[in-house]
Amino acid sequence: ESGVQGCGIVRAIGEMALKFTCLLLFLCICPIVFSSHRKSDTKSEHGLPDDIQSLQQGITRAEESGDVEALFTAQFALGRRLAKFGSSIQDLAKALGAYKQSIKALKRAVELRPGDDSAIKLLSTVKGQKRKLKQENAPKMKLISYDEALRRAMNKQLDDVVIESIREELSRVDRMGHIDAAIGVKVNLATVLLNYANDMSSRQYMEYTMLYRESRKLLRDALKHRPDNEVARGNLRAVEENLSSRDRFAVFNPHLVAVGQPPCDQVLSVRMVRERIDSTVFTCPGQTDMGLIWVHETELFNASDWFPTFQERRYFPRAQAYDARTVLWRGELCWITGAWGFETMYMLFHCLPLPAFLAQMERSRAAGGRLLPLAHARGGRILSDQKSPKEKNWSPFVGADGQLYMVYSSRPFVVMQCDWDPSPSSSTLGGDVTLRCTTVQSEHATAEAQSRHIRLPPRGSSLPVPVPARRGSEGSAGAAGEPEYLLLAHVRNAALGPDYHHLFYRFQGLSPPFRLAGFSPLFRIPGPAKKLWEYGHGMVLQDDGNLLVTFGVDDREPWQIKFPLSAADALFQKPDASAAEAERALFGPSPTAEALDVRIAGRSLQACLDAAWDELLSAADAD
Q1: Pairwise CA distance, residues 14 & 277, whole Å
Q2: Of the candidates 200, 266, 191, 197, which has an alpha carbon nearest to the alpha carbon of residue 234?
Q3: CA 48 to CA 59: how far, in whole Å?
Q4: What would the pLDDT profile of 474-521 be if each residue is shown by its tens digit?
Q5: Residue 126: beta bridge partners?
Q6: In angstroms, what CA-CA distances link 549 with 178, 197, 462, 513?
Q7: Which pLDDT tens digit goes with each residue over 373-418?
Q8: In whole angstroms, how far apart are CA 143 and each of 22, 140, 149, 384, 397?
Q9: Which DSSP category does 426 fall into?
């Protein structure tokens, strides 16, 4: 224990100072054994069996036809065949290549059908086979001495070499039966793992949770033998507090849409996150006795299916919908969301008839203000002729002609026209209908519309907001009767600092081609004093002529700020103003942003869901 007491410090979340100790892991390198029974495959000129080539061609045909079910079947079959091929050849590079292609195909299959257990299990198996093959043939990691590992850990030089070296020391003292020494090394290893997990971002949930849990197990083992070890006890409290603080509910990125019908004059959507579970909560501002929750990946699961598989879902990321933005279209409340796949990001679009949505809100009120699941939405992944592997920030709007359009990007200015795909092949599980979008406009902004100092392409934040056409400034007025749209966008770059910078741009027209009419200078949205960033997510024009921008703070809180539309208009007259100048002109010398307190029946969203969450955790930990 003396070694434990004399070992340095480790940083924990919440600015808690912690004592520190060390580790080493035994790395087992086993010779690879290949089966002597090999089935010969007929190879194509590309070195792959002919049937694999045929499966790849089947994927191409399914993609061209837009047949989602056929595409899933082809991707799954290709992944399964490549895995079999990889396990049947002795050439290491080719085997790893086959496994890599298999994993890629299976990931795409899971993206197409997130709830398909056969694809998920096969993907997990193939990943394990690839990992085992690499481990069996990898050179042994060059480890360092225990003392050197401790020295680096004390200097915050944490990496896999430090962790594995301390694990190796723990293995050595365990083999020798040195109980006191093993306790010291366990506490040190646990503290290193704690620090390493603390430095991981919130999007590395799976990785940091596993490290926290390993750290907790080591500290509990140490306390079984030495209950009076204060260092182990303090570090265990830090692990528990960090797990709890990083697992708390976060409610952020609010978005408003006016519907003008009881019981909701407006609908507020917010993103709610805990661990790997992403959801959207719909409420009615001013009506705190109703609310609906929508989770894309659980639409096809009932509670009895969801609870037993919850542990797998926490550690095995699946496609989840996030950052909903709502729009009224053809009498329906619709929302667009992004989704993370395994290697891609793509867009989803769902709709529900407005009367049905309002009726579900009324049922929530009748149930005593309970947060109920939003049901019967139709939609799914958007099909389009834009094929980037990472799609996000599309901005839908309804044109003056009643058609649904999507601003895909501002530079170049790309607009798509969208409608439900009438073909039977667009149906997915549960009878969903797919939105199909086709590019109808793609052009670079004119010199007059460009803001010279905005070097990065702006990305969409709000949806396009119809505003009164401006008059009196050269080049700004469209033809008589043509609507004008104002859109809030954002850029983020290391050169600009950690915060998001925002800007406005506008366009005009009754229908495509729309005319891009100008960019404002960059500015930051003022929020609370202690924060890292604000992300503008929504904007509405109010009856009093003010713009209300809703934004998220640090992916944790929903906020809003109000300012005159005339102040936003004035920014277009000085596109080269500095961010500070633009902020003063837009928000005034004393900005007054305010937090949105989202409540259901007088309770916070966290209070509404705590009981359900405890039930989920109990089911997950039952193993």
Answers
A1: 23
A2: 191
A3: 16
A4: 444 455 678 999 999 999 875 666 678 999 999 999 999 999 988 999
A5: none
A6: 63, 35, 8, 28
A7: 888 888 888 889 887 878 889 999 999 999 999 999 988 899 999 9
A8: 14, 9, 9, 50, 58
A9: G
